[in-house]
Specification:
This protein has 447 residues and is an alpha/beta fold. Helix content is 47%, strand content 14%. The longest helix has 24 residues, at 109-132.
């Protein structure tokens, strides 16, 4: 959230303003007229524009009106060498954030731009908070009525009203972030931010900067102070996913927050105070990581004050039908298809499948099957090949053997070609095979 578009027909002014904005840490886009400005907005989606009033192919005041109609969240600041009251009034009426006279008010440019970005950030966080307070993040939205999930829900409900740290364990794809959201939603902190970070998504250096922030000049490229995610989550909840992947050196900083509620930003000398509830999650055995000197024992005991294990999908097979129906409804809407139904034999296959990726894998299978199915009815032949091969009910009730793979592959390729309306390049991409391989199989199977 730091893109700014500078629109001015004078190249020297564009260059000067671009340099100023770059030194402030913004990503700068440039345009010399209305037409190229609109193209830049459509292509690169800046959050703020700094626009001259007099342009070769139009007027900046009118351009703001056109932009705000199409992109209401974008903030526009107008610049002119010939400021006058009527133009100022009309610019504000058209939705401009502010109006600056060149030369006389150059010192106002940076503060006004910063205020515009602050307005966007505030609106974004407010929208995010409102979304987090919606019923979709409540415990009632969690699917399933099996004994293992009910036990996990019971524990989550009890701990949600407290302020203690929570450690969520379980295989990948079991819904740990959904549980973290629900715990936050049901907690006294629900009016403040819920911030999620995946500890495995960043290098050690980047994760430290993202989580704790830094001071300007603390390292190459640190052009301005940066708030970390712990500051964003102040008075709210931070969810640390894949905590077992966090670098050993950073674990000491996290322990300091748990013990004292403070940490030191990169390049700073004074501690920053925060009041944050920490919910962590892992699919690793942290006790084994401790034995291997990859995880701090003292941090483990501070994080695991209250531990909840989320069961794998294969141990709650009675919930699979409900999940399947939910994902069918969700992706039917997203794919603009009529609401599909699922053959009962498919549900039986789902209940026998090991689901190593758990709920996330089931979701992906449903989405893929909806793409290739005919007549909005998901059948066995619409499933991935490894699932078809594992089904004893497939092919008119006859058990499959290894020799039946060619039949399944032929049907699968035919379905994908039907979906792509004969576009072989697109079909090869979806099938994740080379175009030459696809042509060979089309000839081999007489498709």
């Amino acid at each position: 959230m730091n893109k700014i578009l500078i629109i001015d027909d004078e190249a020297q002014i564009r260059k000067l303003l671009a340099r100023i904005m770059e030194l402030e840490g913004y990503e700068v886009l440039l345009a010399g007229d209305c037409k190229s400005a609109l193209k830049q907005i459509q292509t690169h989606a800046p959050e703020v524009i700094l626009c001259d009033v007099y342009l070769p192919d139009g007027n900046g005041v009118n351009l703001v009106l056109d932009i705000k109609k199409k992109y209401p969240d974008l903030e526009a600041i107008l610049l002119t060498a010939h400021g006058n009251i009527p133009d100022c009034v009309q610019a504000i009426k058209n939705g401009a954030f502010d109006y600056i006279t060149k030369g006389n008010e150059n010192n106002k440019i940076i503060p006004v731009v910063e205020r515009a970005f602050n307005k966007i950030r505030t609106k974004y966080l407010t929208t995010k908070q409102e979304a987090q307070k919606s019923p979709s993040y409540s415990f009632n939205s969690i699917i399933g009525n099996s004994k293992p999930i009910n036990e996990a829900l019971s524990l989550a409900l009890k701990v949600s009203v407290t302020d203690v740290p929570v450690l969520l364990t379980g295989e990948t794809g079991t819904g740990k972030e959904v549980f973290a959201q629900a715990i936050h939603h049901n907690s006294p902190r629900n009016k403040s931010n819920f911030v999620a970070v995946n500890c495995s998504s960043f290098s050690k250096e980047l994760l430290e900067s993202e989580m704790f922030g830094h001071k300007a000049g603390s390292f190459t490229g640190a052009l301005k102070d940066k708030k970390g995610l712990f500051e964003e989550a102040n008075n709210g909840t931070i969810f640390l996913d894949e905590i077992g992947e966090m670098a050993f050196e950073l674990q000491a900083k996290l322990l300091r927050i748990l013990e004292c509620g403070e940490y030191i930003k990169i390049g700073d000398t004074k501690p920053t105070k925060v009041n944050v509830r920490i919910i962590a999650a892992t699919n690793r055995d942290l006790k084994r990581e401790i034995d291997n000197n990859h995880f701090r024992e003292d941090l483990y005991y501070r994080l695991s004050v209250f531990q909840i294990h989320l069961p794998p999908l294969r141990s709650r097979t009675e919930d699979i039908g409900n999940f399947a129906q939910f994902f069918v409804q969700t992706y039917s809407n997203l794919l603009n298809k009529s609401l599909a139904d699922i053959d009962s034999k498919v549900i039986e296959v789902f209940k026998e499948y090991p689901w190593k990726g758990n709920i996330r894998e089931l979701r992906n299978v449903i989405e893929r099957s909806l793409i290739v199915c005919s007549n909005n009815h998901i059948e066995l032949e619409d499933l991935p090949l490894e699932m078809q091969k594992g089904s004893l009910a497939y092919n008119d009730g006859k058990e499959l053997s290894d020799f039946d793979m060619s039949l399944m592959e032929r049907r699968h390729i035919s379905k994908v070609l039907e979906y792509t309306k004969g576009n072989k390049a697109e079909a090869a991409r979806l099938l994740k095979i080379g175009i030459a391989t696809l042509y060979r199989k089309i000839e081999e199977y007489k498709i």
